[in-house]
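Comment thread on ticket #2218

A.B. wrote:
> Attaching the input chain for the structure job we discussed in standup.
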Amino acid sequence: RGVPRELGARWMEPGCRSCTCQQRGQVLCEAISCSVPCSHPLPPPAGGCCPTCTGCLHEGVARAEGDVFSPSDGNCTVCVCLAGNVSCISPECPPGSCPTASPPDCCSCQPAKCSFHGRTYAHGARFSLDGDNCTTCVCRGGEVECSFTPCPTLDCPQHQRQLRPGQCCFSCRDPPRPSGCFVDDNGVEFPIGQIWSPGDPCELCICQADGSVSCKRTDCVETCPHPIHIPGQCCPDCSAGCTYMGRIFYNNETFPSLLDPCLSCICLVRAAG
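C.D. wrote:
> Ran it. Output below, let me know if you need it in another format.
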């Protein structure tokens, strides 16, 4: 290549070839053989031919000696670079269950099933005990948790609560049917079906089966010029006699007029129809 070399001289040619000047002016070149005693050597430094084990090359990333790192796709795996070798440690996950000491994404696992009273339940399954619908159980990671069915808050007093057959929670009894009607603050009670007048003879009230009071007024349709008003009776009586100047006279009874003593009066009851 235009450069004089002495006999026995050695030099490096591009492409990591080692050349020697031999007898009779001949040049012998051989490719350099590199002995790499590590699993993840770094690329040769600038001007060098052989990789170096003073660091590590892992997934295209150069790591320094003693560097601790996690691979991009390793769940909870930890790696360390030692003399060009990469050693990784992964968490030990028992088969079929999830360890509580490791994060949930470290192990590929399925929550443990529950065996309870001879039956197997999947994780998260809810069920009731045999013959006891008032208790609800749930399977959580191999363990069964049971609790009583929650009951609503009742607004009735204790003595009005009852537990019906087949029910888990107490309920309020139906209020007792009323035995009568209370009509005033003094506690006066009328039995169901009782009819009475509340002070006005033209108004009648009745005690109904549900304990309420129903009242109705009476309309008087029979009229006459001189009716008799009987105390305690709603409508005037036109069939018993006549009322004249505050006095009561019976049918066909004669009496002198109080306005003119020469006049004689007679009570005539109006004929029906």
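A.B. wrote:
> Thanks. Noting for the ticket: Residues 91 and 102 are 8 Å apart (CA to CA).
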